[in-house]
Amino acid sequence: MRNKDILIVEDNAELSEALSETLALSGYSVTCAANGKEALDKLSRQNFRLIISDIQMSPVDGIQLLESVKQDHPELPVLLMTAYGTIEKAVEAMQLGAVNFMVKPFEADQLALQVSQHIAPAVTPADDVLTRDPKMQSLMKLAGRVAASEASVMIHGESGTGKEVLARFIHNNSPRKKEPFVAINCAAIPENMLEAILFGYEKGAFTGAHQAMPGKFEQAQGGTLLLDEVSEMDVSLQAKLLRVLQEKEVERLGSRKVIKLDVRLLATTNQNLREAVSDGRFREDLFYRLNVFPLRVPALRERKEDITLLANRLIAKHWKYGKPLPQLLAAAEQKLQSHNWPGNVRELENVIQRALILLTDGKICADDIAYTDDFDGAEPQWVQAEEHLVKPASEGLGEGLRSVEEKIIIDTLKEENGSRKVTADRLGISPRTLRYKIARMRDAGIALPC
Fold it and tell me: What does each C-alpha distance from 389 to 369, 374, 384 come to in angstroms?
């Protein structure tokens, strides 16, 4: 099960939903529990970076939950919520190890501030980059040197190569490492929401803005802001971003108050930005503002020496069965080495997760290595062997619909000789939406027409 950023423990369903939506809008992944007992169950199956818990609950109240967390997960921060009349218990909780408490009701920007101050750093391979490849080793040494500076860094590379991992490495080795690292995926957020999420907004600034919300720049104050896939940003918003970078100040939507900024900026792209500048899709002045120190992450096919190394790390990461780690047999290693990896490390992770499901006798053999193409043409051996098993509709419908959508996109691209613009027009979607879907397909290792 995928790890989440925040676990909300609240027995009031409406408040729990409101808190979850507020934090999701700030870019956090959230899971909710209705009481301390349910929270402990989720903690046994998932990792979190922060717990936000009410105190008055049954069974297992916030104090009991805190004591259990501090015993089993001493590094995990717990932020408590309390109603008037339970302040004494909240103080007691802080003495037991809670990082802070908030008195209900509280504003959304207060919640966002508390979360940004207390959430634990994301655990990623960035602090211990695993590589034997000489090109990758040289890149990490260079990244370590640029980390000590305040220069803006543009990280180039194909989807799935680990650009965000490199960005976190830069932050974690910089003088700002104790301050927030905030990432925003410019391709995953609708155009009409990106400006509000980036710069923040005041209550009433637009329809649906029921409360004030600090933007990503404010949340990253003193630390580092990563603009992931910045090349997907609309040109009109690029102009506003440029002004913020030049002036080092931001105004929330619906406000005239100027907020001074102390933020280091990193950006990533999977496109050729010089071509985007020539085509008028990316501002030249913004390109030079962001591209002070360019770094390129090599594709996985360019660093063959790392494939087995990364595969074994991913096996350790995803093996959850309490038994000895499975052995990657030589034939399986050879099959991994011979693949072209269009989806890079992200595709490798998918392949390893499949292999851990398919393996027998604690060994991963060549037949357990299944690529996405194996699902499109002739059936793999393990599928033929289990044809009699019928996948429940509740599990297969979503994936089936996605497969149909992907086939329609691929067929239309072929008919239009790879033209993204004409394909988007024919499908009735925006070019931005099509680029996002293509990026998702490429990440999954699906071969696409040029």
Answer: 20, 18, 10
